[in-house]
Amino acid sequence: MFKTCIIGASGYTGAELALLLQQHSQFDLAALYVSENSHDAHKNIGDLHGFLYEQIDLPLLPLKESDMLALAEEMDAIFLATPHEASHEWMDKLAGKKAVIFDLSGAFRLKDKSVFAQYYGFENTQSAWLQQAVYGLADWHQEQIKQAALVAVPGCYPTASLTALKPLFNAKLLDSQHRPIINAISGVSGAGRKAALNSSFTEVSLQAYGVLGHRHQPEISNYLGTEVIFTPHLGNFKRGILATITVKVAAGVSAEQINQAYQQAYAGNPIVRLRKSWPKIDDVAQTPFCDLFWKFDSQSGYLVITSAIDNLLKGAASQAVQCANLRFGFASQLGLVN
Amino acid sequence: MFKTCIIGASGYTGAELALLLQQHSQFDLAALYVSENSHDAHKNIGDLHGFLYEQIDLPLLPLKESDMLALAEEMDAIFLATPHEASHEWMDKLAGKKAVIFDLSGAFRLKDKSVFAQYYGFENTQSAWLQQAVYGLADWHQEQIKQAALVAVPGCYPTASLTALKPLFNAKLLDSQHRPIINAISGVSGAGRKAALNSSFTEVSLQAYGVLGHRHQPEISNYLGTEVIFTPHLGNFKRGILATITVKVAAGVSAEQINQAYQQAYAGNPIVRLRKSWPKIDDVAQTPFCDLFWKFDSQSGYLVITSAIDNLLKGAASQAVQCANLRFGFASQLGLVN
Amino acid sequence: MFKTCIIGASGYTGAELALLLQQHSQFDLAALYVSENSHDAHKNIGDLHGFLYEQIDLPLLPLKESDMLALAEEMDAIFLATPHEASHEWMDKLAGKKAVIFDLSGAFRLKDKSVFAQYYGFENTQSAWLQQAVYGLADWHQEQIKQAALVAVPGCYPTASLTALKPLFNAKLLDSQHRPIINAISGVSGAGRKAALNSSFTEVSLQAYGVLGHRHQPEISNYLGTEVIFTPHLGNFKRGILATITVKVAAGVSAEQINQAYQQAYAGNPIVRLRKSWPKIDDVAQTPFCDLFWKFDSQSGYLVITSAIDNLLKGAASQAVQCANLRFGFASQLGLVN
Amino acid sequence: MFKTCIIGASGYTGAELALLLQQHSQFDLAALYVSENSHDAHKNIGDLHGFLYEQIDLPLLPLKESDMLALAEEMDAIFLATPHEASHEWMDKLAGKKAVIFDLSGAFRLKDKSVFAQYYGFENTQSAWLQQAVYGLADWHQEQIKQAALVAVPGCYPTASLTALKPLFNAKLLDSQHRPIINAISGVSGAGRKAALNSSFTEVSLQAYGVLGHRHQPEISNYLGTEVIFTPHLGNFKRGILATITVKVAAGVSAEQINQAYQQAYAGNPIVRLRKSWPKIDDVAQTPFCDLFWKFDSQSGYLVITSAIDNLLKGAASQAVQCANLRFGFASQLGLVN
């Protein structure tokens, strides 16, 4: 059993991750932490998240910076379900010690520092860890993840988008003159567990946001290898992302080549499911899966793919567990798929 | 045309009321106010509430206490869609002048001052206005409303509950040993337009609250004339209240007597609709109606009634307009029902 | 007062239309019809649609084909809220008489007969009426509508899409090598009032459908003037459509030119609202508006527009009323906007 | 490993049960059946229920009556997730052989035959099996379940209601002059997987139904031991039941006695969770738990309890697994709670 803890366990992602680790056969969930001045400090996690009531008997301990070094030497794995700024600030106290770090924030996902000022609103000064961090797209970067000291677990939208697009791009099937157009709709849990007018029940109604300026656009473009147009939306549901992606394929590409690209990428992968019909959000909510389906119009050369995930699981917690599984020598899906 | 304004126009009730007054043939909506330090001050109401975009061209003016007296002398009617504490604090500056006051808060609904300390968390020191205030249950208190200087517009739950129960109680059909049991479910807009964790989209899920201690329990009991058990719930919808009320009738009461009580109370009333099947929330959402339907088990003597309203309209804004209509000599439903 | 009736009044669109006509100052709603063998025949419309209870006191009369001629000579306007096949079958009995016909089905929206076999599943044999029918995109085709004997009221998705795209195409701002990519999400009422597994509450969850083969794709392309890629989705809400449209503009096009195109098309139009922020479904649900907002990335030349309407109103019933207003000499928005 | 199969596996309950059995360490899910003329016959269950895609590789076999005997001799346990009529019709072909039968329909829940004609619309002629059937309220009837040849798994509403009420009744805390008043709201999945207008997405809106005449009223009364008033509602959510129960306690009963009654009944029970705050539907959806919380007004003697379950799990599939666990000698919660 590998000893693990979660920092930032009071949020939705932290709660899901806590349950996954608690039920995992190879990881021991030893402790839950929140920031020192959190008003949730010392509460039991089951009192914040009713589904965990009596299931995890751990308090949310306030974590002092002065205790981070000891923690990093005690744990085998530390999961950070913290705000970007907190991950950024704490990383050099936590990383590079005994514990492997799995950071679910966006603070270490990109190598290019300029992105952080523009899209995240803070300057990233952790140059060394930015360079060392491995992007934890678990179905693609297995070899790097197995060696990583710090895994930057991908964002929810990039996970849905890259899983759909990488097979096509890598097989050189995309027309280079047309950017892939990604329209994605996320459930409100993606906004985190907090009081905010724009995520209050009465205010939420299907709407675009962050158009042509969302921080996941450079993340997708960078790990795909080509520019994309990414338009996120907030939907009136709690969990899940549906990404509908329209691409133009290169001249002469056939449906069979598209099919082969997906088969090659995912045949036998228990997490990515190549469906026989258009996936719904409900098919993947509360699951670790990414469901894909596509239709191609050979006359026009346009191809439409939809990709569905649970934003809190495949878009965060279960992908972090996939990464941890890989890093500690287990099958990617251990503890996630029966 | 009577000149009107709304104080507290940035919230959901204020926005609905603004549209009703704007479209009304006899009232002129002259101005919208918010409290002096509101961060919505000087915004256009259509920028806060998308459905009003380009429909009402009025800014939300910050209201200074020093301007209240002049306002009360200028207007024919002032509608207060303000917090209880604000209505309480400002009432002696506004009431008793030219303008008739229609207060949608709870600050003047009850005569018994002890209720305010226990249920509202503040001491009500406006004794004179407490005494003068008329309870604006528009389908029942028409004569008093016509004379009022200050109308305390009822709460949403009391409106749904009293409309269902008053015909039975007044006709002496209720068994006095069994309290009416009121289970009511409200949409989230009832919590107001604000950032709060417990009304955030991801947190909302059908749940009881305020059990055996909600401030609407004394309001219902007082205006019904007998004690009730009132259990409110928050539902996962935006607008509307469904109250399901179970009573035991007095020995020997027949279905025909129950029917007569409702017919006598509401036949010909265009606002209260005696339905032929169980009303749904959607039947009354965005409408000024209160829909009633009931079933009686003569063997056991138990009677179940459901009552459905839109909490923002019949439970607030449209009932306020009913009161204003009555006060200025019009039919109760003017501007509400075609 | 012009005398009107609705055929196919039992569905959601028919019910909305009935209320609009009932409240209209210039149209008299004289009768409601359903097909001869409808199981809703002889019911009161308020018993099917609770929001109309006691509001419209008209039964749903079964319409015999033998009575159609007399009806067409009696009425000034007949609204068909019928299935495509029924409108197709009945048109030569109804059109060309005294009554102007407003057909809300898809049976007469396109001139090209081959579309019907491919996309609608029936052969359109009404050649004469196909030629005479005027496409009722009310904010664009006002002059033709004023003369029409038969108005084919547009589909919901085409209304949302064309309102967003026509200003750009007509101003020659679009790059001709990139098809506009339209992703649209409709509420479930778009599927009509009927029992069907895929629109049952438990089954509905955000999902694409009809990809690269929906019947509204040729309708949009035809009335825009260029091919588009249209991907519809079913969303977990009752009413409304949000269309998110991504286009590449021609080289050198500026934000100012885009702005001018929209201003020129819609400045002063009370139905199409050029918003200052991204519209939500809730801003337009239960309203006759089409709300537009856009963002342009001058570096890449990509432009994203979202367009929001109520599918039952601007996408059907209120646009039919706009058409009738125009046809009978009134302002387009009469009875729709205060 | 005990060999099991499910008859009626195409519905929502069958699908949940299939996943529970598939993941169970002691039961082997050997086959899935549907009725002989089902249009789902020969489909893979993952094509009907997207969450099961690639998770259960079993077709839905059409079951002939002529094969039932052999099946009953081959299996250790047969789960019937069938309509009441089908369970009734097939029981003497299935029960009394090698397999223990777990019937999730209502056909064998009550001993009194007259109930079936009145509430279920068919005459129950299976007198012998009616007598032998054990009511599978798993947290209460453990000893009988351990011996049963046929377990009638309780209805969803009775499970929520009885779990809340039995501790009070058994401890003689209830006033006998006041019937317990049960108001319960169910998600739409309770209506089953089928096309029906009243469960279509657009029609569903919070509403009472089956008032004073629902078939679960006699089931609750019978297994509680006293008459109740039960009012079910349909809510606008997919899964879960919240029952709000108002009772009057006997004179002199204290909060401490109430607390003791619940502690005695459920302390240490991992399925029934005595909460510290009002449970939400979301706390129990997708879980096997029944969550309880209560508040008592000692002055009036009224007590309000809410009880929350997932209708498809604790109200059907997971309670069936609890029963099977007990019957085959395992802990009630095996395979359900970590």
From TrEMBL, chains A, B, C, D:
Q: Which reaction does it catalyse?
A: N-acetyl-L-glutamate 5-semialdehyde + phosphate + NADP(+) = N-acetyl-L-glutamyl 5-phosphate + NADPH + H(+)
Q: In which pathway does it act?
A: Amino-acid biosynthesis; L-arginine biosynthesis; N(2)-acetyl-L-ornithine from L-glutamate: step 3/4
Q: Which Pfam families does this UniProt record tie to the protein?
A: Semialdhyde_dh, Semialdhyde_dhC_1
Task: Mention any one GO cellular component term assigned to this protein in its UniProt record.
Answer: cytoplasm
Give the signal sequence positions.
none
InterPro entries assigned: AGPR, AGPR_AS, AGPR_dimerisation_dom, AGPR_type-1, NAD(P)-bd_dom_sf, Semialdehyde_DH_NAD-bd
Q: Which Gene3D superfamilies match?
A: Dihydrodipicolinate Reductase, domain 2, NAD(P)-binding Rossmann-like Domain
GO MF terms listed in the record are:
N-acetyl-gamma-glutamyl-phosphate reductase activity; NAD binding; NADP+ binding
Which locations, inside or outside the cell, does it occupy?
Answer: Cytoplasm
Q: Where is the active site?
A: 156
Q: Does the keyword Cytoplasm apply?
A: yes
Q: List residues of the Semialdehyde dehydrogenase NAD-binding domain.
A: 3-148
One biological process term from GO is: L-arginine biosynthetic process
The protein's Enzyme Commission number: 1.2.1.38
Question: What's in the keyword line of the UniProt record?
Answer: Amino-acid biosynthesis, Arginine biosynthesis, Cytoplasm, NADP, Oxidoreductase
Grouped into one coarse class, the protein's main location is: cytoplasm
Q: What family, per the record? A: Belongs to the NAGSA dehydrogenase family. Type 1 subfamily.
Q: What does it do?
A: Catalyzes the NADPH-dependent reduction of N-acetyl-5-glutamyl phosphate to yield N-acetyl-L-glutamate 5-semialdehyde.
Protein's name according to its UniProt entry? N-acetyl-gamma-glutamyl-phosphate reductase
Q: Which organism is it from?
A: Paraglaciecola hydrolytica
